[in-house]
Amino acid sequence: MSLLSPKSSPLSLHPSTASPASNNRFPFPLTSIRVSTLNHKHSLKYSSNRSRVSLRKRIHVKSPDSDTAESVSDSSDGSSSSSTTSFLSFLCPLLKLFSGGDPSQERNYTLEVATSSLSTLARLPWGSRSLFENLNNQETTTSDPPKPLQLYEFEACPFCRRVREAMTELDLSTEVYPCPKGSVRHREIVRKIGGKEQFPFLVDPNTGVSIYESGDIVKYLFQQYGKGRSPSTGLLESTLFTGWVPTILRAGRGMTLWEKARLDPPSKKLELFSFENNPNARLVREALCELELPYVLQNVGTGSQRTKLLVDVSGFQEVPYLIDPNTSAEIGDYKKILAYLFQTYSAAAT
Fold first, then answer.
1. Which of 52, 112, 156, 223 has the fewest beta carbons closer than 10 A?
2. Where is the GST N-terminal domain positioned along the sequence (predicted)?
3. What CA–CA distance (Å, rounded) separates 75 from 66?
4. pTM of the model
5. CA distance 224 to 239
6. In the chain, count of helices (H) and strands (E)?
């Protein structure tokens, strides 16, 4: 969500029932609702417009209850705000220059963990614990919907980070489709579904909703899966002030596709036990993004009802923990995970 957009601005959503991997045509009708309706439970009302919209450099979506049109650029990576887009356009090449080169090479892990830990401190109140940790002990089921959520994002994006923090608080797992700069797969899917390359982008097959704008996504997730809870204090407002700190401290890691990454995706999604603000897990998520590897993100923040599942599969409660069903590998040490990922999913390994 653009941090400067008015609450009454129209929100575009696209009902989706098909898996992104199985359907390349995406014949979705266009619907739109007002953002303000997201603040009221059970108040979502959809009004379909069956006419097809030509999507070029810009799209204009007509609101069903307004004579004004919403104009959205397809070049934004975190907000439709032109100022944010311009800042990202300047920041991304600059960070790439200082990113430390080839991510597969030997790293200074003392420095890596130090910058990641400072990133954690910058976002300390958010993305570390589940808001459901005080639920009655008799309730042991997770908060996940029947069909997995699908999140298109890239690790270095501060607005994508806001959504991942919310998912940690809501104890939600999701399918993550990384969309780094230079993406060869997932950015094209987002264009076909939503009409533009803007991130984050959420697809919820349980409700048929697809949605841009991080603030709107967070409000939607809490309304749909929050069991009456609200985002932790400052989650939405803080991104503008400290959300950029991890991006800068990590010098843009998790932003650009590794030039030696395999072009073909693995047949099965990897699985990562993580939570947003864990410094070691952040390093692994950066690598998954740079390799454009789709994976199931199992959020295990403090108090998560998913902790027992982690203990059952790994024998301990520490994250990150990676499971690769394509090779039957299960790895719990972040250094070994990084080495494994870049060795296994480089173009040279095929």
1. 52
2. 147-229, 268-349
3. 25
4. 0.76
5. 22
6. 10, 13
Assign 3-state DSSP to the chain and report helix, strand, coil percentages, each to 5. 35, 20, 50
Of 196, 181, 334, 329, nearest to 261 by C-alpha is: 181
Question: How many other CB atoms sit within 10 Å of the CB of residue 136?
Answer: 6
69-73 and 58-62 beta bridge pairing: antiparallel
Coil, strand, or helix at residue 58?
A: strand
